[in-house]
Amino acid sequence: MTNQTILDRIAASADYIASKSPLKPEIGLILGSGLGILADLVENPTVLPYEEIPEFPVSTVEGHAGELVLGTVKGRAVILLKGRFHLYEGYEADTVSFPIRVMKKLGVKTLIVTNAAGGVNVDFDPGDIMIITDHINFMGKNPLVGPNASELGVRFPDMSEPYSRRLGKLADEAAAEKGYRLRRGVYAAMLGPCYETPAEIRMLRVVGADAVGMSTVPEVIVARHAGIEVLGFSCITNMAAGILDQPLSHSEVMETADRVKDQFLDLILTILEKL
Ligand code: HPA
User: Residue 210: is its pLDDT beyond 70?
Assistant: First the structure.
């Protein structure tokens, strides 16, 4: 895609969204599997199905509704993606992260991302919430491959602080106030869609991963390219393959995400108040 085409596509989406809501969102939220309920708490929401937005991709996975929601939460203007795009659906890396570029164009300065992940660290338990301190990109894809549009960011972006330490501290404070235990750790991103093998999980543990999932990293790369500050959380929905003597399933992932959603939501609301 030429630089002009990508800039035009971003502008087409952003102009459409701006024409539907006068709100100037500063905070973007992308909520993973089963955690889209935050969208229900948005006040005065403008809800735009993805297929309505020019140039926007459309999502296909069960449990991932495809809607963009603009409104206020705790008095903060937010733009929220209810349902994200995954590489395993067959999208290109620059497509799954396209909404971040649209958010940036609309004025977003802070991005909160959440995902469901398998626990690689054996000290973790299903239901834990982990602040993502760093990531390892094992997807074999990078959304910045191709010509660089300097309007969007530099050719060789710094990734020495992909997840903001400042925002991580805020999250710690919010969790302490509420009496929630937060884990911290490194998120390894795999292409999927199959879950990992036990040998892959042992490998991930050796290289320093604490959790594993199939999303988030392309979005965070594009956000950092755009100079957006990122706060990321994994909901540990299951122990990763080979840790327990049982198969993994999407229904287990969804059930655990559902079990912790109230706490997760409360945490995010508390953080929004502090931002
Ligand atoms: N592996 C990869 N992605 C996941 C997992 C897992 O164990 N759990 C939730 N998403």
Answer: yes
Instruction: State in Å: Cα 214 to ligand 1 middle.
Output: 7
Q: Classify domain 3-274 by CATH number.
A: 3.40.50.1580
pLDDT tens-digit readout, 121-145: 999 999 999 999 999 999 999 999 9
Closest Cα to atom 6, ligand 1: which residue?
118
- What is the distance in A from the centroid of ligand 1 to the CA of 44? 34
Ligand 1 site residues, Cβ closer than 6 angstroms: 116-118, 195-196, 212-214, 237-238, 240, 248, 253
Residue 63 has pLDDT above 80, yes or no: no
pTM (2 decimals)?
0.96
User: Is residue 58 over pLDDT 90?
Assistant: no
What is residue 197's predicted lDDT score, i.e. its pLDDT?
98
DSSP 144: T
Which residues are known to be catalytic?
33, 64, 86, 88-89, 116, 214-215, 238, 250
- Give me the amino acid identity at 140: G
Q: To the nearest 10°, the Cα dihedral for 96, 89, 35, 188? A: -70
List helix spans (H) across 136-242: 165-178, 198-206, 217-225
Domain ranges of the chain: 3-274
